[in-house]
Amino acid sequence: MAGRAPAPPTPRDALHSISGATAVMLALTAIGAVIHEPVLIPPLAASAAIVHSVPNLPLAQPRSVIAGHLICAAVGYGTLAALGSASWAAALAAGLGLALMTMARTPHSPACATAVVIVLRTPDPRTFVPLLAGSAVLLVLAGCALSRARSASSRYPVYWW
Questions:
Q1: Is the pTM of this model over 0.90?
Q2: HEC-encoded secondary structure of 43-55
Q3: How far apart are CA 149 and CA 79, in angstroms?
Q4: N or C, which end of the chain has less CB nearby within 10 Å?
Q5: Helix H segments across 36-86?
Q6: pLDDT tens, 125-156?
């Protein structure tokens, strides 16, 4: 077996990442509760973990976070309209979303969960899509702010688009 796992973060770095991701998730949970749309929490929790824990990966970059969720939302609503709400349709939506993100060079695996949530939960697109877009932007901005709050941390993002 080749290679080794990276060294664990220092306790200070871990606390920085955890506090940032938790603060963003608390804000998103509050927004979701106010407008009665809590279904965004699973995919965005995974996005927050990636942005705050491994900010240098292509999956964590703003292009992938924002465009990936929006692409998968479009796939989710398209699949829902064409095939209805079923587990197999949700699985198909996740696969199609992954394929489109790959072709668009916006890989973000948590966005596949957005497509699944849409197919299985059928949220109203008039509230869900603006909340999704705003939440993805908020997640990216929080990642930017937190990377600058601590001089020792790596700069996020590595690239914007």
A1: no
A2: HHHHHHHHHHHCC
A3: 41
A4: N
A5: 41-53, 62, 68-83
A6: 998 899 899 889 989 998 998 888 877 667 88
